[in-house]
Task: inverse folding
């Protein structure tokens, strides 16, 4: 559920899902495993000003180890309003079945 309370449209450039390490040590590379969506439903191009949009994304079955998190990035075209969301395995275990 995306709500745009600003007076400017939010043009979506990229919706990205990845699994990454929670902590990064000094002088170590960051390893991210990108997850490709199997199916996407909803308007993934624009969230108009003052409106709410629902985007449903289906991903392949996966698990998240304790030292990692699921990252969701939503990037705006030609702008600086980027959304980052970090989800641990605990949040996925609370998910309900959609019928």
Result:
């Amino acid at each position: 559920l995306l709500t745009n309370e600003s007076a400017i449209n939010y043009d979506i450039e990229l919706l990205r899902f990845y699994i990454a390490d929670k902590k990064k040590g000094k002088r170590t590379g960051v390893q991210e495993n990108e997850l490709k969506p199997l199916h996407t439903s909803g308007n993934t191009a624009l969230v108009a000003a003052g409106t709410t949009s629902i985007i449903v994304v289906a991903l392949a079955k996966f698990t998240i180890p304790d030292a990692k998190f699921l990252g969701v990035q939503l990037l705006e075209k030609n702008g600086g309003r980027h959304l980052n969301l970090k989800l641990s395995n605990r949040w996925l275990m609370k998910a309900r079945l959609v019928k």
